[in-house]
Amino acid sequence: MVHCESPLEGDFVLRCDFDDLISAVQEQPDRLEYKREGKSRRYTPDFRVTRNQNSHLVEVKPEQKLACEDVRDKLEFVQSLYAENGETLEIVTDRDIRQEPLLSNLKLLKRYRRRDLMGFQGAQIVGDLRHVLPATVDQLASLITGGRATVLGLIAAGHLSCDLDLPFEQAITHITTKIQGEQK
Fold this sequence. Notes:
The chain is of the alpha+beta class and 184 residues long. It has eight helices and nine strands.
């Protein structure tokens, strides 16, 4: 479990959790000590994110805080220090993180990750639904026991996929099966 110091950081970690390309998120990975304007200072990034076996540092900030020139200057300076050492510090804002309906969909799916639809049972349900795919969430829900909750559980477990940038209430036309790590 990744520790977060703010709800915005929590939303960032949630997005990472549902990104298949991200293999690791580490909170406050290291501390940078530096001198600026004759004073010793330190900076700790919020996260180190590993995507496709490459990692970079991430600072999560509300966009409103970046409007402050001192904050912006400090982060730009720290970014340049990391760049000198071959590291990337990405600044991610609430505008980047809190895109709707994606964030609401992920929060809903997080609740369904707890459903026991992993492994054989999920694969069996998806196998039974193959003949009707692609279909909308509601179309699938009308065909199976457990309805919408089961469909959302299958999406959360990775047995089904859909465009999470669309509201679940809208027709989702690109549902594909994903069984045992293989895209079908």
